[in-house]
Amino acid sequence: MPMAAAEIEELIRAGIPDARVEITDLAGDGDHYAARVVSPMFKGMPRVRQHQAVYAALGGRMGGVLHALQLTTEAPTTEE
């Protein structure tokens, strides 16, 4: 059974409480999503570590109940 976008957002926010999270259903099938996660904790962190932090927040659901997630992570800029 596919994961709901709201559930993905909740999991990421629970694992990275200061994150701003935007979820987009890419195919309209509830199975292929894009996530943009912006968090101050990512400042100075390599992109791979940022993605690992998001995967950790998802608690092992990647590749299982969450089939595909196009992930964009970044630290906030001064304007944000």
From TrEMBL:
Family membership noted in the UniProt record: Belongs to the BolA/IbaG family.
Protein name from the UniProt record: BolA family transcriptional regulator
Coiled-coil regions listed: none
Pfam family, one: BolA
SUPFAM superfamilies named in the record: BolA-like
InterPro entries: BolA, BolA-like_sf, BolA/IbaG_stress_morph_reg
Gene3D superfamilies assigned: BolA-like
